[in-house]
Design goal:
alpha/beta, six-stranded mixed beta sheet, 3 helices
Length: 147
């Protein structure tokens, strides 16, 4: 599972020109589900995202989480994060999970964040989307897998 987290001052996602999800300050999460990913990993990475200390405390240090700050999360499914560019010029997406496997894991990730108290907006799974965000910092992190 690939989880790319960006600290944002705002973010929104549109499908066919209509806004389907938006947040003010918080995190934009681009989530790529790969073959072999499972429910345990989806929940653990959601918890890691919720607890990630990337927002400033009263001393200006990155020491507060999205949950502590009361911010939101915009979670967008992004199978292209599973791409391999090792050979040739055309990305290979063979590592990406099949949609019928990926969608429940994407939903589990979102549900886990919500169960922890984070307001979550989403894109539309498998839709062509336009994602607009204003990066804050910029702070962008690729989460390491959980053991």
């Amino acid at each position: 599972m690939k989880v790319l987290v960006q600290r944002v001052t705002r973010a929104e996602v549109r499908v066919d020109g209509a806004v389907v999800g938006a947040i003010d300050a918080g995190v934009l999460v681009l989530l790529g589900i790969e073959r072999g990913d499972d429910l345990r990993e989806a929940r653990a990475l959601a918890d890691k995202t919720v607890d990630l200390r990337i927002f400033a405390d009263e001393h200006g240090r990155m020491n507060r989480s999205v949950l502590e700050c009361g911010f939101g999360a915009l979670v967008v499914s992004q199978f292209t994060l599973a791409a391999s560019t090792r050979r040739g010029r055309r990305p290979s997406f063979t590592a990406a999970a099949e949609p019928e496997v990926a969608k429940p894991l994407y939903e589990a990730y979102v549900e886990q964040m919500e169960s922890r108290g984070v307001r979550v907006a989403t894109g539309v799974f498998r839709a062509m989307m336009e994602v607009e965000s204003v990066n804050d910092g910029p702070v962008t992190l690729l989460l390491d897998p959980v053991a």
